[in-house]
Amino acid sequence: MSSINEQPIPAARPVIGEDEIEAAVRVLRSGRVVQGPEVAAFEEGFSRLVDDRHCVAVNSGTSALHLLLLALGIGPGDEVIVPSFAASANAVRLVGADVVFADIEPGSFGLDPAAVEAAITPRTAAIMPVHLYGHPAAMDRLMPIAEKHGLAVVEDACQAHAAALNGTPVGAFGAGGTFSFYPTKNMHSLEGGMVSTADAELARTLRLLRNQGMEQRYANEIVGANMRMTDVSAAVGRVQLGKLEGWTEQRRANAAYLDAHITAPAVTTPPVAEGARHIYHQYTVRIRGDRDAAMAKLTEAGVGNAVYYPTPIHRLKPYWEPDQKAGRTWDLPETEKAAAEVVSLPVHPSLTQGDLERVVAAVNDLGENL
C-alpha distances in angstroms, 256 versus 73, 101, 162, 332? Predict the structure, then answer.
């Protein structure tokens, strides 16, 4: 049980410091508050994280996915292979394409390449791997499958800023990558998103789509939407981008400490694939036994914990009901197993050494008979 003098350790802790506040106030005083010079500078700065690809800022990570699919021409009649993850599946549905769920690998929680290949049909237009919790998906095995079948690869890197596989950053593998800057991400812009792409023409289409189909004011070229990023958000994002490397290394150091000291037999710490740079958006363990009891014990000890995505999206109403009517069923045993076992523990860069020791003690006190 946590001491009466000890504050609970939160599972996540968004950072909004004086630097971020000053940047936001500076923009507000400037009077240029929507898609102006701060957005352009943020896009330029972020491109360095994705091998200098073109970057297009938008108002959320979900918007980034939505617009990228639109820009690629994916829509009714097409199928997109995704893991059972809400934001990715929703973006596919929003453009009118059909969602095809494929199972995950147990270590990375990313799409299983064998399951992806088995799911390909003549209607498949794209594969959408998710770099979940900050671990890169198996892009070294997914990209050859996509190339073999002539499929676009849309990377959902919304939890994986600066993650990499064999030296290539996520967001620099496929036709495009997408990132989120929601407040709980490893860096944020209050709210916002980014699309990265090596294709200059695709980047231009994305810029049109985010701004009512216009590059020049009132000269609409295509049908578009209003998914612009504000300069206030971009200014906050630029400050956070400057701190990301230090925060990432602190997350990785915190994770290494947890890896080395968690010894509870019922708890499996997160594995890292060979060649992967895990940036630990979440430190997600597996708990064998009574997970609810384990979480209650952790909470009693003052250690924040959470289960993200306790019910896979293919089993929730917006997907389950239409699939039932269409006679579609999904066999995703690794997805179901992960949903039943995972718990995310604190790993954020605000943790002190004392916090880390408390997390380890609370986890190890769980023992082996849950």
Answer: 42, 33, 17, 30
CB 137 within 8 A of CB 158: no
- pLDDT band for position 104 (50/70/90)? very high
CA distance 67 to 62: 9
Q: In the chain, where does DSSP find H-type helix? A: 18-30, 37-46, 61-71, 86-94, 113-119, 139-149, 200-210, 231-261, 291-300, 317-326, 333-341, 353-364
Q: How confident is the model at residue 369 (pLDDT cuts 50, 70, 90)?
A: low
Alpha-carbon distance of 19 to 71, in angstroms, equals 35
* Lookup: tokens for 60: 């959320």
Q: How confident is the model at residue 4 (pLDDT cuts 50, 70, 90)?
A: very low
Question: What tokens does 167 get?
Answer: 């030296």
pTM comes to 0.95
Instruction: State CA 215 to chain mean position distance.
Output: 29
pLDDT at residue 192 greater than cutoff 80: yes
Q: Which domains does the chain have, with CATH numbers?
A: 18-240 (3.40.640.10), 244-364 (3.90.1150.10)
**Of the candidates 99, 89, 106, which has an alpha carbon nearest to the alpha carbon of residue 340?**
106
Q: What is the pLDDT of residue 5?
A: 58
For the chain, the average pLDDT equals: 95
The residues near 222 (Cβ < 8 Å, ≥ 6 apart) are 205, 208, 209, 213
220: which residues sit within 8 A by CB, 6+ positions away?
Answer: 212, 213, 214
Alpha-carbon gap, residue 284 to 245, rounded angstroms: 21
